[in-house]
Amino acid sequence: MITQLIADVERPVAVTTASSDVGPALAARIRLERTSRVWSMDELSSRAGVSRAMISKIERQECSPTATVLGRLSGAFGISISALLANAEAKQERLSRREEQQVWMDPETKYVRRAVSPPAGPPLQLVEVELPPLARIAFPASAYSFLHQQVWILAGRLAFSEGHTVHDLRKGDCLQLGYPQECTFENPSASVNCRYLVAVIVR
To answer: Going from the N-terminus, what domains does the chain have, and what CATH number goes with each?
Structure first.
């Protein structure tokens, strides 16, 4: 069953143009996080629930990880997805111009994630997300165990699930996440994008 769960989140996806801008930096960051902990690919695979083959392909830039795989890797490393996507060499600037903000697209669902905060922003990180119609993203509880998060809906609707609890969120609603558990972000609309802001503080 575990093997099947891993396979479900690891359908190979070719690197797309939208995500290729951060591809090399992301692959290098994942490799750096793994090797700095002196973890083998097998150990990271065990901790994250992501196959060794997939980790190897990501590090070699042969495929782009999905949002769910990124969530599993960030949980294993104990860092936020924003930190994982951030360029390790980024300058500690306090101003983030929109045209310079890093944008990443999930190659599977076309979910778009924009890092709004300046590089000097941590521990507070602001992330703008656009979820296409009927798109669904799931993250494991491990991705939330070290974070405090609030989700503010800017446009559209979001069906947000924390474990077995489902929140129907609409424009202007703001939800503070509870204790760490598996979470799912789903856009129930068949025609309208859902746009929301995530405020993250590392505990």
So the answer is: 2-85 (1.10.260.40), 98-202 (2.60.120.10)
